[in-house]
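quick one, 292 residues, struct below
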Amino acid sequence: MSKIITEITPLSEQDCFYLVDRYKHEFDYPVHRHNEIELNLVCNCTGCQRIVGDSVETLDYYDLAVVGEGLEHGWLQNGVEPKNRMREITIQWHASTINPTLLEKNQFASIKEMFGKLNHGIVFGQETIKGLLPKFEELVNPQPGFMRYLRLLEILFMLSLSNDCRTLSTTAKVMLENSEPSRRIKKVKDYISVHFSEPLKLDDLAAYAGMTPTSFSRFFKIHTNQTLQDYIIDIRLGHAIRSLVDTNKTSAEICYESGFNNLSNFNRLFKKKKGCSPLEFRAKFIKTKIIV
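---
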């Protein structure tokens, strides 16, 4: 889990949520984090693996988990080759999508309580998932965006009433992120997440962190298990991966928009990390994506 990328989602401040319904033969998106809450349902994933924070678990036929902002997570193949395609429904939304004032109302009390645990991640049992499958089908069916929003609220409400759930990542993991070194690292990571498409120099990032380049380089490696250069490459590749599966842009367009200044170098790094070319990676995805 030393390689964790920061995902840049396509959501704007004007969007309610991002919905993806896709069929796939394998999990090939790396462990990552992002600034949105995510609800993820997977079907036919027996034997695969889920990582949320410091929790690593082997999955049953269904898996349904919700993770909070900034919490690293991912679903991995774990050597399993399902006989049939897996189905994955992913919903991402900003915390502001549900107004904090609304959460103070009595009718939202159970949702508010559930949201208070999102920094640890929450997983739901098989019976809860089976009962909610029709609601997920209603959510992905064609309908006005307003109705989709109401469907999402209904799903969240039903989840908040479930007794068949538990948290995943430990408190120690969450508290660790509040330490002084973690705050300094987070400051730099947040800057990189915004400016990944621009030239990023060690001297400039070290100055931003209030350190000398040599000290900062060593400090970053100790606290992330990665060199600064490797981390920047992972962030840029994460953006490129998302663009490949969510847009029709050419490989060259994605290369330069992701901060790479050389197409050959981009293709080489992509193949090294993913084992295939950018276009081969795109071809693996069969999906429907909706922004509400």
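The CA atoms of residues 173 and 200 lie 29 Å apart.
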